[in-house]
Every structure is written in structure tokens, then in C-alpha cells.
């Protein structure tokens, strides 16, 4: 980066709103990139995204679905880098395409869980009284559901499939976010800067969305990133049990499941997708840990 | 005043940081006898850092250097962590601003004070308890036996600060640093605590360094005052002469404080001169 | 401008009630600066928060700007009265620039000419244009308090409530802020109430001063009486004596 731009971004005296926002973003990005843990995590997550986006090119034209029964269970070789599975499909391209499924789950769960948790938590924390009691009891009820069992019930009721798996995971995943948001909101709501906005005549909605939610967001993002490993594992678990993504979709959990019978003789069939699950989970955990350091108010 | 208790010559405290070295204390020299020495300054003046350096409490990566820093003939610059532990509490001690952070919340105050006795004095458990109660009485706590069994959170601000002073003085040090000991207290309570300190200093012949931002308190309580600015001692004067100080910073500071005696239409503001740091 | 009669504030915490303010009455005239002094637990800040409608209270009369003020205030009523808090580190939103903070009240009340008003407010409190897009953590304590004052005054309220506005600041910065408040009081023709534990600060800025102790009003005296020591209550006398500094008992 040119030094002039760097100086402009790092300026302690920004001259426009845009420079202030960009400068702050730049500082944030820099602190993530210079934090080794966060950086490794970020690289792994970036790798996941790239694999998902460029799967058709990276797999060199090999379809994840084309069967080749003659070449089934082939060991890793120049033709098939990660070998083939019990139907002769290329495991390398299946692993790449599997990233798409994983990313879809990650995306859908985040989109459902974070807003629900934030809204329920901030409302309960800010309004207090009976709103708080009702919302938190509902939260407790959802918290009491065992995640995998609920997912099984959903799959049984609505039929197996990735959407139902996501709904089931999300339904049981939001309560902790509501709790975090609630406790943060209660601390923030007492602070003088919120009292100041109240005195200016701001509506409750304005106070919640413009002043409280942005401050709760960072801890929710950290928690979400840290939880992502668990969500991916649950999704893989559902796939393993045959309740997640349905065949022939390439999904890591289902791939591990199909390699289970041949794990002793053809180790790669189960191990490769297992490694993928492991690395991606680790990546999200590292990123979450790093983000927590970066967002820690004590460090700024 | 005979032999000084504490001699400090050319004390420097620096903190290396990302953007360069911060010089928290610069070339500070002073001596302390059996007297009340005040250190006044605003935040960032290095007054607290000076106090901490004298007790070997500068955290890493801070660096303390000096030509001389000796206490009752002992060279403090050569002290190991073990030597410091032997000195602190037994022979020199410190009272901080907020007793809440300095007392262990899950132990009764009596136990904590008695522990200090056991640690520093060769006495038995029974005697430690007696000394503790005597000490609590000395800081004018009305019912020392009762307070002995109280937990820190049950004490009011003034009581807490008295308990702190009792704990710091129970091993009978002859040098005490009080870092803003009354700043968190109400004015009426503040003077009671000052009176206790005052009596202890004159009765036991202790040396006291009294660090504060409050000019009124320092000028009425101390014998001598050092005025610090940006890590430097810019002026030293007798406490009662503070109103007629010479250094422009001290004069500006005195004029900037609203006073009950004089009605000023506008308060003087401090125009900082970089020359003061030379 | 402000009238309070028999103001009582009771907090309930864990089954116990704390009578923070017990039947306080006073009036503040148009353009006056009224002081409230007391030690911790005297209820002085609570009085201010009750007038601002930040805590529930009961009273025979609670008038702001000549009209009775309820606990629930309309947006127009909010505009009459602004507040400056004690701790400049806690009173500004940590993720908003000075510009965001100052624009907020204008947007809430849908006031036009936002850009010029923000610029003027920044200049009014002695800040520079370079401070406009900084975040609070890039400002010193004194500068933050200036931002808080600018935010309070940007809607041109007739009443300003000051809750220990300088007690978190160094003496030299305190002098700057007190001078600024004195200047703004003139140029905005403000009616204000200043709460402080520091008698000298209150005597410097106020015409009349209420002394509070343990939730009750001890007496109301003029600043001149405070300086001269012509007071009736023993507590006030003790407070003045203690504020003048330490005295050796026997000396």
C-alpha cells in the first residue's frame, strides 16, 4: 500500500465522514491481519470461500457426481488427487463442491441466528419488565431443546434436506445470542451516552438500532464465529445420519458416512472429508478467537 | 532535620512503547526526612509513577534509572525482588486511592491485617490479632473488635480507607507513600483521614510522601511540596508558600482553581510552555 | 423557569426502599444558575435526574419552563432541557464520531441546516474543525466534555442541567470548562442547575446554592453568604470548613 494512502487512512484528524469511517475500517482490518491467530483463521475461511466459488474450475472439469464404477475406491493418484469413493466419484472435486454446502449452511444459520438473537436480546434488555420476562422464558424453552434431537424430529416431520437441517440448527442456536445481547444491552442502557440520547428525545427504536445494536454486534459476531465450528459439525453429523443434504449432493458429513464401511482398507474415502471438516472448524475457531482479541475494548 | 530518610537523585522512569519511549519521570531529585512531603501535579505529570518507583512497583517493560536512590542507607537500585518484598510492608508502605481494589473481598479485614503482621513480624497469631485491633483503634475505628470480622464490601469509603491505612501501618514502617488517599472521599471524611495520617506521622516520626492533585489539601497538610509537570519536578517550595510560588506552571495552577475566598470573573487557564520540559 | 415542590424520589432495590430524595422544594428563576452541593449519598444528582425525567419521582409541583412536566416527556418537551454528565469517558458513544454525535439531536428533531449547525456548535465550544470526524477515544478528557456540552446546546435549549461537569477533569482543564460554561450561559441566555461536591466550583458559577445532606435540603444560601460564612446550619459550616483545607486540631 502506498504510504500516502496509508497515512490518509491512519490519520488522527480525518477531514470527512468517509475518511473517518474508512480509517476506522482500515484500522480494524489491520488489527485482524496483524493478529496471527485471526490471520490464520481468516486464511482458512477465505480458502473455504474460494473453494466454494471456484469449485468448477479448481476441480479441473471433474464433476462431483459422475460415477465411474470401474474405477471405484481408487487410491489417491495423479488422476484422482484424493482418490475415488464407492461409486467411483472424484473425492477431490466432491470435497471442493462440499465447501459450497458448508458455506450455504454457515450463511443461512448466520442470517437467521444473529438477527433473531440480537432483536430478542436487546428488546428484553432495554425494555425490561414483563417484556424481558416473557422473552427470556421463551429463550429458556428453546435453550432446553437438545439440538440434534430437534433436528432429527424436524427431519422426520418435514423430510430430510439441507433447509430443514438449517432451520433445526438455527432454532436451537439463537438463545445464547439473545442472552449475550441482553446482558450487554442492560450494561449499555445504563450508560450516560444512552441517557443522553433519551434526553434528546430519541424513540426507543432509534436508541435500539442506532445506538445499542452496533455495540452488541461485535460480541455477537465473535460468538457466531466461535459457534460456527459446532454448527458445521452438527450439519455434518446430520449428513452422517442421512438427515442433512441428500445424495448425491456432495456433503462432507455424508461423505464421511459413506466411507465408514471401508475405513480400514480405503482410508481416504472417510478421512479426506473428515479433514476438511476439521480444518474449517479450526479456521472458524481461530478467527473467532482472533476477532475477540481485536474487538476487545481494552486493547483499543 | 537530621539524616534524610530517602535520597533520590536523577530518577528517570521510561516506558518503551510502539510509538517510541515515554519518559514518565525525568531527572527527579529530592530528599525526604521525617516530614510530610507533598507531590502535586495533574494527570500524566508522573507523580504516581515517582511514588511507585520508590517502592519498586514499576511494571515491565518500564525502566527505572537513577544516580542515587537510597532509603535509610540501603541502595534501592540494587534491590532484588526478594529485597523489595522484605522492605515493602515492613519498612516502607503505600496507601492507594481506592481501598476497594486493594483489599481482598473474600477475607475479613481483621484477617488481612493480621496476616500482614504474621508476614513481617516474628509474632504469634494471638499477638497479631491484638496488634490488629490496637491498630484499628489507632485509625479511630469506634468498634475495632466488630470491624475485625467485617468484609471489605461492608465498609463505607472512609472506613475502607482507614482500614487500608491500618493495614499499611501495622508493621510499623518508617516511610509511607499515600497516593491520592483521600480523593475518593467526601470532604468532611477526607479531613478525618488526614488527621489520622497526620497524628501517625508525628507520633511515630514517619516520613510521608503525599501524592495529590488537590492544591488546597496539599498546601494545608504538607510541610514541603514538589510540583511536577510532564515528568519533571518544576518547583519545590514550602507548602504554605504555594500561593506565592515562582514557577509559571505552579502560579497558573493556583490561579486556575476556583477559590472560596476570592471571586474571580474568569479563571486563569494554563498556557503550557514547552520550555518547562527542557 | 424551574419549580420543584416536595420532590421525592424513592428507589426500590431487593425489597428495600431507599429514600434518595425526601421532599425538596426550590425555584430557579429565568437566566439564573442554581447550585446544588452535597456529599455522596446526598441525593444531589438524583434531583437533577428527576427534573430531567430520567428517574421516576413524585412531587406536588414539578415545572419545567413554566409547564408541569410529567415522567413521560414528549419530544418537544425533551428539547427544553439538556444534560451534561460527570464522566466525559462514559457520556459519548464509543463508536460514533463527534460529527455523528452532534448530528443525532438535529436528526431526531428533524432540524435543517445540519452541516452549518454542527460546524457552529464545534466552534462554539472551542473545538477545531479537525476534531469533527474524530472518535471519542482520539480526544482528551477536556475535549470530550466540550463535545458533550456542544451536544447539549446544539438544539438551543433554554435549560441546561450540569451534573458534576468538571469533577473528572484536571484543575487546569476544569478552569477551561468552567470559563466556557460561563461564556455559553451568557451567549445562550441559559437557565442552569449545577450539581457538584466542590463548594468552590459552585460558588464560582452560581448565584444561589442549595446544600443537601442525606436526601434532604439543609438550606439555600447565596454565593456571597457562602463565601462570607454567614450560614445558619451547622452542616454547611462544617462543609465550608472542610473545603478550606486541612487544619491541625491543636494548632
Automatic annotation (TrEMBL), chain A:
Q: Tell me where the transmembrane regions lie.
A: 38-58, 101-128, 148-174, 228-247, 267-288
- Alphabetized Pfam families for the sequence: BPD_transp_1 (PF00528), OppC_N (PF12911)
State the compartments where it is located. Cell membrane
Report the family membership: Belongs to the binding-protein-dependent transport system permease family. OppBC subfamily.
Q: What is its main location?
A: membrane
Membrane topology per the entry is:
Multi-pass membrane protein
Its GO biological process annotations read: protein transport
Instruction: Recite the UniProt keywords alphabetically.
Output: Cell membrane, Membrane, Peptide transport, Protein transport, Transmembrane, Transmembrane helix, Transport
Q: Which residues form the ABC transmembrane type-1 domain?
A: 99-288
List the coiled-coil residues: none
Q: What molecular function terms (GO) are annotated for this protein?
A: dipeptide transmembrane transporter activity
- Source lineage: Bacteria, Pseudomonadati, Pseudomonadota, Alphaproteobacteria, Hyphomicrobiales
Query: Is Transmembrane helix set as a keyword in this record?
Result: yes
One GO CC term, this protein: plasma membrane
State what protein this is by name: ABC transporter permease
Q: Name the InterPro entries on file.
A: ABC_transport_permease, BP-dependent_transpt_permease, MetI-like, MetI-like_sf, OppC_N
From TrEMBL, chain B:
Keywords, A to Z, come to:
ATP-binding, Cell membrane, Membrane, Nucleotide-binding, Transport
Instruction: Determine if Nucleotide-binding is one of this entry's keywords.
Output: yes
Which PROSITE patterns does the record match to this protein?
ABC_TRANSPORTER_2
What GO molecular functions are on record for this protein?
A: ATP binding; ATP hydrolysis activity
Tell me the SMART domains matching this sequence.
AAA (SM00382)
Start and end residues of each ABC transporter domain:
8-255
Q: In what way does this protein cross or attach to the membrane?
A: Peripheral membrane protein
| Keyword Isomerase attributed | no
Cellular component, GO annotation: plasma membrane
GO BP terms, alphabetized? transmembrane transport
User: Where does this protein reside within or beyond the cell?
Assistant: Cell inner membrane
Gene3D superfamilies in UniProt: P-loop containing nucleotide triphosphate hydrolases (3.40.50.300)
Task: From the UniProt record, list the coiled-coil ranges.
Answer: none
**Principal cellular location given in the protein's record:** membrane
Query: InterPro entries recorded for this chain?
Result: AAA+_ATPase, ABC_Ni/Peptide_Import, ABC_transporter-like_ATP-bd, P-loop_NTPase
Which family, according to the similarity comment? Belongs to the ABC transporter superfamily.
Name it.
Answer: ABC transporter ATP-binding protein
Organism whose genome encodes this protein: Devosia nanyangense
UniProtKB/TrEMBL annotation, chain C:
- Establish whether keyword Signal is in the entry: no
Q: Which CDD domains does the UniProt entry name for this protein?
A: ABC_NikE_OppD_transporters
Please provide the Gene Ontology terms (biological process) for this protein. transmembrane transport
Annotated SUPFAM superfamilies? P-loop containing nucleoside triphosphate hydrolases
What Pfam families does its record include? ABC_tran (PF00005)
Q: Look up keyword Nucleus and say if it applies.
A: no
Please indicate which superkingdom the organism of origin belongs to: Bacteria
What's one GO MF term for it?
ATP hydrolysis activity
Q: Which UniProt keywords apply?
A: ATP-binding, Nucleotide-binding, Transport
| Residue ranges constituting the ABC transporter domain according to the UniProt record | 2-239
What family is reported?
Belongs to the ABC transporter superfamily.
Q: Mind telling me what this protein is named?
A: ABC transporter ATP-binding protein
Species of origin: Devosia nanyangense
Amino acid at each position: 500500500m502506498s504510504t500516502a494512502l496509508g497515512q490518509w487512512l491512519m490519520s488522527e484528524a480525518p477531514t470527512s465522514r468517509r475518511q473517518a469511517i474508512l480509517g476506522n475500517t482500515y484500522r480494524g482490518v489491520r488489527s485482524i491481519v496483524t493478529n496471527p491467530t485471526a490471520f490464520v483463521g481468516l486464511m482458512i475461511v477465505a480458502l473455504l470461500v474460494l473453494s466454494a466459488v471456484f469449485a468448477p474450475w479448481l476441480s479441473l472439469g471433474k464433476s462431483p457426481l459422475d460415477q465411474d464404477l470401474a474405477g471405484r475406491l481408487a487410491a489417491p493418484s495423479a488422476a484422482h488427487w484424493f482418490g475415488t469413493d464407492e461409486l467411483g466419484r472424484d473425492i477431490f472435486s466432491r470435497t471442493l463442491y462440499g465447501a459450497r454446502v458448508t458455506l450455504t449452511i454457515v450463511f443461512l444459520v448466520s442470517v437467521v441466528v444473529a438477527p433473531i438473537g440480537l432483536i430478542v436480546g436487546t428488546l428484553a434488555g432495554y425494555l425490561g419488565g414483563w417484556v424481558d420476562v416473557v422473552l427470556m422464558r421463551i429463550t429458556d424453552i428453546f435453550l432446553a431443546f437438545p439440538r440434534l434431537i430437534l433436528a432429527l424430529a424436524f427431519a422426520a416431520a418435514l423430510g430430510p434436506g439441507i433447509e430443514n437441517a438449517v432451520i433445526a440448527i438455527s432454532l436451537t442456536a439463537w438463545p445464547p445470542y439473545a442472552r449475550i445481547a441482553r446482558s450487554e444491552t442492560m450494561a449499555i442502557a445504563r450508560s450516560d451516552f444512552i441517557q443522553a440520547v433519551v434526553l434528546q428525545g430519541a424513540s426507543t427504536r432509534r436508541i435500539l438500532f442506532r445506538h445499542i445494536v452496533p455495540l452488541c454486534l461485535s460480541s455477537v459476531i465473535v460468538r457466531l464465529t466461535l459457534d460456527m465450528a459446532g454448527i458445521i459439525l452438527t450439519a455434518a453429523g446430520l449428513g452422517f445420519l442421512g438427515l442433512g443434504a441428500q445424495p448425491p449432493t456432495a456433503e462432507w458429513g455424508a461423505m464421511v458416512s459413506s466411507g465408514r464401511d471401508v475405513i480400514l482398507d480405503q482410508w481416504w474415502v472417510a478421512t479426506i472429508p473428515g479433514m476438511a471438516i476439521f480444518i474449517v472448524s479450526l479456521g472458524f475457531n481461530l478467527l473467532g478467537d482472533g476477532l475477540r482479541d481485536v474487538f476487545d475494548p481494552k486493547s483499543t | 532535620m537530621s539524616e534524610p530518610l530517602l535520597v533520590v537523585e536523577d530518577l528517570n522512569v521510561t516506558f518503551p512503547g510502539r510509538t517510541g519511549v515515554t519518559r514518565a519521570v525525568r531527572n527527579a531529585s529530592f530528599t525526604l526526612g521525617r516530614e510530610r512531603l507533598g507531590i502535586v501535579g495533574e494527570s500524566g505529570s508522573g507523580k504516581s509513577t515517582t511514588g511507585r518507583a520508590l517502592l519498586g512497583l514499576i511494571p515491565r517493560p518500564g525502566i527505572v534509572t537513577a544516580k542515587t536512590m537510597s532509603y535509610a542507607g540501603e541502595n534501592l537500585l540494587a534491590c532484588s525482588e526478594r529485597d523489595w518484598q522484605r522492605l515493602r510492608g515492613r519498612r516502607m508502605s503505600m496507601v492507594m486511592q481506592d481501598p476497594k481494589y486493594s483489599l481482598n473481598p473474600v477475607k475479613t479485614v481483621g484477617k488481612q491485617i493480621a496476616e500482614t503482621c504474621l508476614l513481617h513480624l516474628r509474632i504469634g497469631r494471638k499477638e497479631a490479632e491484638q496488634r490488629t485491633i490496637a491498630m484499628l483503634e489507632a485509625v479511630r475505628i469506634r468498634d475495632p473488635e466488630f470491624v475485625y470480622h467485617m468484609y471489605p464490601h461492608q465498609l463505607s469509603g472512609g472506613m475502607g480507607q482507614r482500614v487500608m491505612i491500618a493495614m499499611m501501618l501495622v508493621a510499623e514502617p518508617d516511610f509511607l507513600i499515600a497516593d491520592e488517599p483521600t480523593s475518593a472521599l467526601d470532604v468532611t471524611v477526607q479531613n478525618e483521614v488526614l488527621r489520622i495520617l497526620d497524628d501517625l506521622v508525628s507520633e511515630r516520626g514517619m516520613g510521608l510522601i503525599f501524592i495529590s492533585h488537590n492544591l488546597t489539601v496539599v498546601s494545608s497538610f504538607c510541610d514541603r511540596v514538589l510540583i511536577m509537570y510532564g515528568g519533571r519536578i518544576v518547583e519545590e517550595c514550602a507548602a504554605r508558600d504555594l500561593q506565592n510560588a515562582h514557577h509559571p506552571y505552579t502560579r497558573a495552577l493556583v490561579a486556575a482553581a476556583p477559590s472560596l475566598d476570592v471571586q474571580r470573573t474568569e479563571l486563569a487557564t494554563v498556557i503550557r510552555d514547552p520550555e518547562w520540559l527542557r | 423557569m424551574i419549580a420543584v415542590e416536595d420532590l421525592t424520589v424513592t428507589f426500590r432495590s431487593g425489597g428495600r426502599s431507599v429514600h434518595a430524595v425526601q421532599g425538596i422544594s426550590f425555584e430557579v428563576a429565568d437566566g439564573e444558575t442554581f447550585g446544588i452541593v452535597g456529599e455522596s449519598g446526598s441525593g444531589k444528582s438524583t434531583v437533577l435526574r428527576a427534573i430531567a425525567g430520567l428517574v421516576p419521582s413524585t412531587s406536588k409541583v414539578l415545572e419545567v419552563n413554566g409547564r408541569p412536566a410529567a415522567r413521560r416527556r414528549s419530544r418537544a418537551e425533551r428539547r427544553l432541557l439538556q444534560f451534561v454528565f460527570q464522566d466525559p469517558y462514559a457520556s459519548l458513544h464509543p463508536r460514533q464520531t463527534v460529527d455523528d454525535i452532534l448530528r443525532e439531536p438535529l436528526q431526531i428533531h428533524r432540524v435543517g441546516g445540519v452541516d452549518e449547525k454542527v460546524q457552529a456548535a464545534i466552534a462554539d465550544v472551542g473545538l477545531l474543525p479537525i476534531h469533527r470526524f474524530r472518535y471519542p477515544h482520539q480526544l482528551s478528557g477536556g475535549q470530550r466534555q466540550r463535545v458533550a456540552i456542544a451536544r447539549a446546546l446544539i438544539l438551543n435549549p433554554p435549560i441546561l442541567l450540569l451534573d458534576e461537569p468538571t469533577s473528572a477533569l484536571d484543575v487546569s482543564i476544569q478552569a477551561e470548562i468552567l470559563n466556557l460554561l460561563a461564556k455559553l450561559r451568557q451567549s445562550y441566555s441559559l437557565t442552569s442547575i449545577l450539581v457538584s461536591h466542590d463548594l468552590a466550583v459552585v460558588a464560582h458559577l452560581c448565584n444561589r446554592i442549595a446544600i443537601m445532606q442525606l436526601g434532604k435540603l439543609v438550606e439555600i444560601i447565596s454565593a456571597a453568604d457562602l463565601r462570607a460564612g454567614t450560614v445558619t446550619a451547622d452542616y454547611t459550616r462544617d462543609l465550608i470548613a472542610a473545603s478550606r483545607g486541612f487544619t491541625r486540631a491543636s494548632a
